[in-house]
Amino acid sequence: MAGSEFVYALPEEIKQGLTTDVYFTRTRRILERYGLLNAVVHAEVTVSGLPDGYKWAIFAG
């Protein structure tokens, strides 16, 4: 095989914010195209369970 079939980021590139998943860039381009880049949105997050020993968790992002 002449080269790698996969392109991946090095841990240093990820930690420095030098790379992202193509999903995010495509989504941003679509939102910009439709004038929705600054739209206010809401989401509901649920889980079916927590790891053993955990009674609660925080979702942030």
Automatic annotation (TrEMBL):
<dbReference type="GO" id="GO:0004516">
    <property type="term" value="F:nicotinate phosphoribosyltransferase activity"/>
</dbReference>
<dbReference type="GO" id="GO:0016763">
    <property type="term" value="F:pentosyltransferase activity"/>
</dbReference>
<protein>
    <submittedName>
        <fullName>Nicotinate phosphoribosyltransferase</fullName>
        <ecNumber>6.3.4.21</ecNumber>
    </submittedName>
</protein>
<keyword id="KW-0808">Transferase</keyword>
<keyword id="KW-0436">Ligase</keyword>
<keyword id="KW-0328">Glycosyltransferase</keyword>
<dbReference type="InterPro" id="IPR037128">
    <property type="entry name" value="Quinolinate_PRibosylTase_N_sf"/>
</dbReference>
